[in-house]
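Mods, move this if it's the wrong board.
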Amino acid sequence: MKITNNSVAAFHYTLKNDDGEVVDTSEGQEPLTYLHGGANIVPGLEQTLEGLEAGEAFEVSIDAKDGYGLVNPDLVHSVTRQQLQGSEELTIGMMFTAENDGKVAHFTVIEIEGDDITVDGNHPMAGKNLHFTGTVATVRESTSEEVEHGHVHGEGGHKH
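Not the wrong board. Structure tokens:
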């Protein structure tokens, strides 16, 4: 079976940056399972996997805009230490989650100057090119519930 819209695929991968350093890998773990066409993985990788079958290998370099997107300067904010309640000891790289009107946002501390803290709401891989290699492990038809919910359920996927 080929990977097509609304199929469930699982794949092993290694992600490297432009310097050839491994950023992430599924090596030694379960493969990553996703609903194809559900916007659950970066667009450039999803396009590459389209039409592949179990056992097929892939290698792709994805421009930042087709990966986690370009860096959006509007997502960099200066806040006060008091606004980050419960975090007395802040460090560069520390991550926070904030909720506003039911929407969850993730921020990374990128600068600390006294009580002024600069946080970045961009994905840590935003603005970076992605270099994937990997192999498709399995492909199966999705259930109607998976399509309705927009993600995989059960083994290797999301469980309600």
